[in-house]
Amino acid sequence: MTLSKSVIKQKLIGKPFPTHQDIHERLDKTRALAVFASDPISSNAYATEAIMSVLILMGAGALRLTLTLALAVMGLVLLVIFSYIQTILHYPDGGGAYTVTKDNLGRMPSLFAASALLIDYILTVSVSVSAGIRAITSAVPLLRPYSIPLALAAIVLLTWINLRGVRESGTIFAIPTYLFVVGVLITVGIGLARLFGVGAEMVSPPMENIVPVVQSASSFLFFWLLLRAFAAGCTALTGIEAISNGVQAFKAPESKNAAKTMVIMGVIAMSLFIGITYVATHLHLTPSEHETILSQMTRTVTAGVPGGTFLYYWVQLFTMLILILAANTGYQDFPRLSSFLAKDGFMPRWMQNRGDRLVYNGGIITLAVIASVVVIIFRADEISMLPLYALGVMLSFSLSQFGMFKLMGRIAHLKPGEMLKTMVTTVHYEKGTWWKRGVNAIGSLVTFVVLLILIATKFVEGAWVVVLAIPILVYMFNTINRHYADIAKNLSTQDFTLEQMRTIAEVVIVPVAGVHRGTLRALRYASRISSDVRAISICTTDDMEARIQERWAEFSVITDDIQLVTIPYEYRDILTPMVDYIVQMARGEYADQLITVLIPEFVPQNQAAQFLHNQTANLLRSRLRRHENIILIDVPFHIRRVANDG
Q1: CATH code given to domain 25-483
Q2: Over the stretch 558-607, which tens digit does the pLDDT of each residue have?
Q3: Can you tell me the distance from the alpha carbon of 190 to that of 199, in angstroms, rounded to the nearest whole number?
Q4: Which residue of 55, 225, 390, 551 has the lowest C-beta tally within 10 Å?
Q5: Bridge partners for 509 per DSSP
Q6: Residues 75/77/83/84 CA torsion (nearest 10 deg)
Q7: What's the number of CA atoms in the CB half-sphere (13 Å) around residue 35?
Q8: What's the CA angle centered on 572, arms 567 and 577, to 5 degrees?
């Protein structure tokens, strides 16, 4: 028994939700934190190591600066979080950097912000999945040759989970996210306790090749590497903007719940970041090609502790899982941002349509396909993708915070009780706009400097791809927008008069290759709608023309009032003379009129059987559709299975 498409679909992604159930599919703060914060929380697995990997170039002695730079990164994170909390409260419909920039800086800056974010979300999926698979293949080296298939399988799994609905995906992702946080916090807590003399003393691994930090404070190399290390540590900022894009995914009151979740995310992410950095630097750990800093720290801290081995594998397991699940930030925000762009006419309209489970199916599947292509191109090697990473998010941070700076300036001119309606939102008088503007200005400036550093240091390594891709995307957005603008102008009824409409010609043209039930049915239908029906047949041989004429005479009851036009043709391409004849009629005899072409077509019982027939009807439709004064009508003839008498 064959299952219908709808049944298979329900088995895979679940039963459809009625539109009114959207409010019930929204997320509480617990699930929302797991859905939107998996990326910034998971970045703590490598943010400290990213700083150390640059500082080690100056010698192991320079690693003492890691904590200082981590505190600087934390300060920037706090600035960005504050800015996005303001964004959430002032733009409760969501859209994040794109909406803020569009409302305050204009169309082009908003498209640059959107392009940067879309690229970042694609790389979030590709990098996160590849990093998670690398963790698996590191534990089981036999799987290393299968890294690409495993990464693609992970993308398929994430796609399937997200197609099942936001609430369901939030439930699935909550468990590994919170278990990762708990495991790392316990590890940091034990590490701090042992560092301060509580419990047995820890044995730090020996530091090799200890050399002093570059002595000259004016050294260009010294400051350059410090800036590079700071920029590398800014990977801790990736994904922070996710909540501001998805405000409407929260339960009511949406903006307040989103803002609270943003604060909780910041507290958790920065606690993990500073905790890991403090313990790692005081244990004098150094970056290694064979083991991550988090793994080294966990192994050292748990050594000799009851249950330490279990805790070590706990942290490693959920580190691997959260690295893969961090891709979910991309799955949540790429479709939402795409829907905002589609609504404004910068992406295909179908990107704003939601599927049976009330999620943006088009955006989810598009993201999965592009991310899979990136994984294949880079052979599931996240290290080679990292130079492309974080550029987009830094550009969007800079534009978003500058947009909020401008908005606060507009609010500053309001008096108590006054309100201002902008292009997107309505703002009211509020206190403290001067210091809020200051915070946004500093945050915008710092993230822009980090962006320049990332471009300068990573350009040759691959960042040029993103630098080139962003304006290409902006050009694509504008091209799509012009297309929709052309459609709107063509369909507009402004200044419309009946005289502008073309008359409909009486003639109906029916292309026929032979006389059978399908063509007879089409001819009979054509006779009902017009008294001037012309059957056109292209004859490549004299025998073929004679056969057509003979069969035509057999069914004179139907064909008597229909004109048969046979066109001799010596070549095998029968479509060209057919199209030429019809177009000649449209431009000559029936110029400035609409003529009807009625096309008979076989329709088999199953889709697979369609490939057994030639595609002449499809090709004919495709070529005639280019001409604006030709109307096409399909007359299907359904092929039924005939019982075998033998």
Answers
A1: 1.20.1740.10
A2: 888 899 999 998 877 888 999 999 999 988 888 888 899 999 988 887 77
A3: 9
A4: 551
A5: 534, 597
A6: -160
A7: 28
A8: 35
